[in-house]
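ENTRY TYPE: protein
WANTED: fold as tokens:
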Amino acid sequence: MIYAHSLYTAYIGYELKQKYKIPFICMWHGSSIHTLPFKDKNVFRRTRRILENADMNLFVSDELFETAKKITRNFKGEISYNGIDTNKFRHYNDAERESFRKEKGIAQNEKCVAFVGNCIPVKNVQYLPTLFNHISRQVEKIKFFILGNGNFTELFAESGLDITYANNVNNVEMPKWYNCMDLIVMPSINEGLPMTCLEATACGTPFVGSRVGAIADVVGIENTVEHNDDFNESFASLCVQRLNETTNKTILPERFVLANVVTKEKIIFNTIITHKQ
């Protein structure tokens, strides 16, 4: 069986199924469903072909599942969320947290806000300088961090803000970063199920995001903001509110724990393989 995780590998899976009768599953994560097919007619046709010929299509959010129906309704599909290894991404104790904050030059009385992601338009990065400036005016002793790749220095060049940049952070270091932050922000225009919100939540770090994809399923609808005319102001206000709260640690819902996701997908795999024998 072939298990594909991108539009390109899924099309290879489709071709192999046609030639060799090998069953394949396609996992849809985000832009390959909610953006790319609607920008290019050829991509739309290939996406429809994949959806209709896959033995199973798995979607990381209900929103992506519904978007796929705009392409075709002739497909087999289920929701299968991304999962997090909670042995690696966990809530640190106070001593562990303060040790890493000290290593990064963060004082005990400082609040830390981070954006985790790359510098691409769909992440709504152009809003970050405005957001960070608003927060800095409302919250004393605040530090801002960017954990991602791209032209962030150019983006913040005229903001007057002191930003700490961390590029190419590996998976071993990421739990440390999440644990020493007081808030993670994700004002994206569109998403599927970003790993960032899962990782941050598993580490107990407050998270404010757009009300897109499955973000609200992970962090709660009360920690998301709908995209409308008041989005910028509402998003910034919610961030300030969360930073001013004394106790707001998060808990990852059980359906996003990796072991539970694996159990569900294993049943799907076995069903398809058994059926094809």
The chain has a mean pLDDT of 93. The first helix runs from residue 7 to 20.
